[in-house]
Amino acid sequence: MASDEQITAEIDKLEAERSELRRRESNEDPTLDADRTRLEAIQIELDRLWDLRRQRQALRDAGEDPDRAEERSGDTVERYWQ
Fold it and tell me: Does the pTM of the predicted model rise above 0.90?
């Protein structure tokens, strides 16, 4: 099970990559299609990681073991927004 610090580090890494891709997108870089695909994948992974962090915090707040939190699939977390 990933720790809160590991989850946060992965979120930070993905946020930095997303920022770089968006910068390139705004400069009309020729790799735009691949960048869009990667941006979509990053967004799903970020949603999954944020969901996991929220689960861990909710368990901690309830006096439970945060390691009981389970990663949910991209399909599951993406349905939250529909």
Answer: no
Q: What is the residue range of 67's domain?
A: 4-79
> Which residues lie below 8 Å from residue 46, measured CB to CB, with a gap of 6+?
11, 14, 15, 18
- For the chain, the domain total comes to 1
DSSP state of 73: P
User: What per-residue string of b and e applies to 41-77 under the rule 16 or more CB within 10 Å gives b?
Assistant: ebeebbbbbebbbebbeeeeeeeeebeebeebeeeeb
In this prediction, residue 9 carries a pLDDT of: 96
